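Summary for the steering committee. One of the milestones for this cycle was to obtain a three-dimensional model of the protein with zinc ion bound, which we needed before selecting residues for the alanine scan. The sequence and ligand used are listed below.
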Amino acid sequence: MLSRRDILLGAAAGTSVVAIGGVRAMALSSEPMAPEDLKAFALGCGGVASHQQLIADAKWLLNDEIKRGVKTAVDTEVVVCPLCHCSMQVTSDISF
Ligand SMILES: [Zn+2]
């Protein structure tokens, strides 16, 4: 059987864990990549062949958003290749 003291200590420990987790989450940051690293990533991009899957995925998401009424048929989606940082504008297949 738990005493009142055990319950209070457990609650305090749980609060501390949450507070520590919150501090860790705030410690995340992002930094721009070094130019040498960007060049190395760009070499990994296969150009059109690598971009076809990105475009297909973005087109599927755009079509889905149009079907759900979130976007209209004239809306477009911009997708950026994570390797070479090319940006591509994707249009929908849906016409009304
Ligand atoms: Zn690319």
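Key point for the committee: Strands lie at 77-80, 87-90.
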